[in-house]
Fold:
Amino acid sequence: MKRLRNRIRYMIVVVLNILFMLAFHSYVNLLLLAGLLLFPFYSIYGVNQVKKTFSLQISVPDETMEKGEEFFLRFSLHNPTIFPLVNASLMLTLENRFYKEHGEQELNLPVRARGNTEVVYPIVMDYCGRFGVIANQIRLVDLLGIYEVDVPLNEQRECLIVPCGSRCDQEAGRIYSNGVSEAVESKQKGYDFSEVSGIREYIPGDKLQNIHWKLSMKKDELMVKERVSVSAMQLNVLVDLANDEEMHLESVLELADSVTRSFVGQNLPFTIYYYSTNQGSLKDCYIGNEVERNQWLEMVLYDQSYSDFGRVEQMFLQENPSTGSYLYIGYDPKQVENDNTITGKQQTIAALRGK
Structure:
């Protein structure tokens, strides 16, 4: 409709110029008429030349961003031709791939001749997850606004938005001590529930914490400490990634970040369990340092949330029927408070359960 209105206006200008030329026998109006009749061809030709040669680049932060922190999307449109365009409409899809939510956005920008047009788009994410931006197509409009062409695109980028929970060392340490019966026994070993049984060469996939750095420097190759368990017990942590319309999962992730950050900060190793929607199974990750904790968090956010509350606890108990105490982090409307509980926002809870 807009293109039709522009065409009608242009025709009116042409007709008025013809009337003035006939009325006043003006050579100026004759030259103007020639320009008015030729300019649309130039304008339309320019759009098609830009269509063939332009390129679009999207950039997002490479590092993970914390929830609520402002970051910037950058769109750079390069036009190597001599033809400028007044307007180009970039059709975008913005997604949170962890929550499986998306929305459409249209971004208007001019196209400079022989140069780059850069637009910076500020973003603040209220929820954790994988933020994705997809440029589906761009609509190029000629200088007169009477002709447009849609160019399909498939440019996309994504970045991780992580929770930022505050540490709760005192509460987390108390729950850990209550949940692990042999914590006192292993205190002299730095809460490491294993002993070194031998030294061997590094194999890809070995944990960084098992590398024997001094010996590796002497031998000029990575050497790894082989360990055997001295305790059949350690704290198992279950994180329920179920979500609903009230977005309770946001509070669960924040609480899980707080508790696990405190465990790692106090050198308290643990194994964390979550249900993977992508793989359709229960996943476990041993965490003994901040690197492993961040890797686990990235694995979770590259997965997807689900709707069944309590699924991770049910599957864990089915696969481990004789398990002892474990720490459940999730949504619990009852929210019973005691020495084995840390309460979070929106009726979320980190509660020691089991025998």
Q: What stands out?
A: Confidence is low (pLDDT under 50) at residues 182-193, 228-232. Residues 27-53 form the longest helix (27 residues). Helices lie at 2-24, 27-53, 169-179, 213-219, 248-265, 290-301, 311-319. The two ends are 70 Å apart (CA to CA).
